[in-house]
Amino acid sequence: MLDLAGVVTTYGSIEALKGITLSVPEGGIVSLIGANGAGKSTTLMTVSGVQTPVGGEIRFRGERISGLKPHEIAARGIAHVPEGRRIFPKLSVRENLEMGAFLRSASSDDWERVFALFPVLKERLGQPGGTLSGGEQQMLAIGRALMARPSLILLDEPSLGLAPILVSKIFRMIREINREGLAVLLVEQNAKAALSLSSRAYVLETGRIVASGPSADLLSDPAVQEAYLGVKRSGEGTSA
Amino acid sequence: MAPAGKTVTAWLFGGGWIALLALPFVGPVRALQIALAVGIGGVALHAARRVPLGSLASGIRQTAFSGWSVAARHAALFLGAGLLVLLTLPLHANNYVIDVATTTLIYVILALGLNLVVGQTGLLHLGYVAFYGIGAYTYALLSAGAHASFWVGLPAAMAAAALFGLVLGFPVLRLRGDYLAIVTLGFGEVTRLVLRNWDEVTNGPNGILGIARPSLGGWVLDTPASFYYCVLVLALAALFAMRRVFQSRIGRAWVAIREDELAARTVGIDVARYKLLAFALGAAVAGLGGSVFAAKMTFVSPESFTFFESVIILCMVVLGGMGSLPGVVLGAAVITILPELLRGFSDYRMLIFGAAMVLMMVFRPQGLIGSRSLAYEYRRPAGRGVPPRSR
Questions:
Q1: Which residues constitute the domain of residue B228?
Q2: Residue B192 domain-assigned?
């Protein structure tokens, strides 16, 4: 469904991605793990068009999307939930969700679907987004992305800064969303949670993919265990 | 809102502070008068806000406005009263008052345009006066040079200003905040200097004389009252158009860009396009204000388009409440009328005016009518499957 081939992205003279090749199958969950600054977020930003790749190619359902503008990519059914949630803090929950459906006109189905997944958003409809708790904001960010009715959702660190109980809740919801047929490309520092959720995973190190395979294999891979699972990582901090 | 005691203290303190500033110029008696006037005025204003205006009009409300929200009813009531005052103004006011009212309306138009860029889209623009000047000179040249009618000059002025809005917009698409402010400031100065030095076209510092007043089918609107009505219609049209645009998808896109540009991109908003649109439309409204200004003065010169004008218009937007249309209208009115009311203090009026602005920003930074959330109000027709607003 989504295929990256040798994608290179630069920030000025710094190469953040040095040739990324990966693919997300229709309806699958793929996770992208790695340390800070490995290029995980940059990969997502490049897919959604916020960053333009200088090399390689990105195809979505066979169509070349690298070089398109973010709104053109969003219109093709890719929704990006950026790192740090980035909800509209002064707009109400309702307005945030409406904004998600900017490119289309939302039907009652769309609203029902989001409320079924995140009932708390229905209770908070009139409240400014900025007054929600961290977990609720993450739900709002995902809900806003779902309002666009995407076929692929890019999730950047959904567990960032959340209490462990909320992390598992958010991950359950991601599985739920995926069951409805949505493909997920998940970036996470919380490697264990990400690997147990996804079917396939890629390990990123300084802009390169250093390991890939079925998530279960990576979970039991000694090298991956040592680098990403052995050390206790709290899943906080940011990555480039 | 702050508790009553705190607000009263704040107003009294504010009165004292203004009096202290004015003391060296006006002497102790006048200073005391100022302190009392500001203090009592503020407290009275505060008390007036407590009066349940709604109950005064409960009869009208229940019959005429059934189904409207409380806020909408109040707004309609104020709007009706305000319109009545504005429409009947020339009947009971002298030419001086009508002239001030006309100037106020021109500033309302300008502030509405700048609010679109700064308040709605969140782009700090310090060179707004450039488009005001371009609009004024476009009509001036068309009228004095080619004897074009105002109704040809007005759209031409708007189009010319919009075009320059795009010319400025393209290079600054990637800039935000301080950087955008500096570039727009520079653009404003460059425009003023071109108007001042391009003698062949703009007649340099001497300006352009002999600009025609608007006319309607042979009736020249050259009395203060008739011109006032003409400007009133244009200002109301600008206000109405603004309201419609803000409630549309375009308005939503602007709010999204203001709130979080990256998030706006990810929900599929073409940020570059909507920013350019904001610049162009904001500039077009300034062009409208400029052509009206040229027609009012029948004379334009570069001196009318200094950086100070940009600052004043920005003050109107900020003082009134960024992003709030009633706020911006009120801000423009207060900032145009207050210095006129303070004429009794001759040279010190700007000092008092400045002090009032400082106090305002300290005690009410969201503006006179700052929208509680800066959110736009989006009312969907019933039965479109959206759950009711939780209130």
A1: 73-374
A2: yes
